[in-house]
Amino acid sequence: MIFIAGVYTAFADGTYQFSVHLTGTAYIEFTLYVNNEPTHYDLYLADLYRGTTILLGLSAGDEVYVRAYWSSGSSLIGHDTYFYTYISGRMLSP
Description:
The protein is mainly beta. It has no helices and nine strands. The strands form two sheets. A five-stranded antiparallel β-sheet has the order 1-2-7-4-5, with no helix packed on it. Strands 3, 6, 8 and 9 form a four-stranded antiparallel β-sheet that branches. The chain starts with a strand and ends with a strand.
């Protein structure tokens, strides 16, 4: 898997696992995209660490990324020097 500027590119056809971990306040939502199409959506309404694992069947060259949104008065923690918010991915099987 290749990681370039927040976008994962599948290197071969197979099943991939993505883990998304968010740390924020109040209202946080995120959408996972595959090839610019939304495939998974989640919403969090509390001051907590949250995470989810998503399994996807991908083809070589498919691109995966996450967009997070938050409302006024909320914040997503994990920029600059604090890395509490992240996405990781790996191929499970071809």
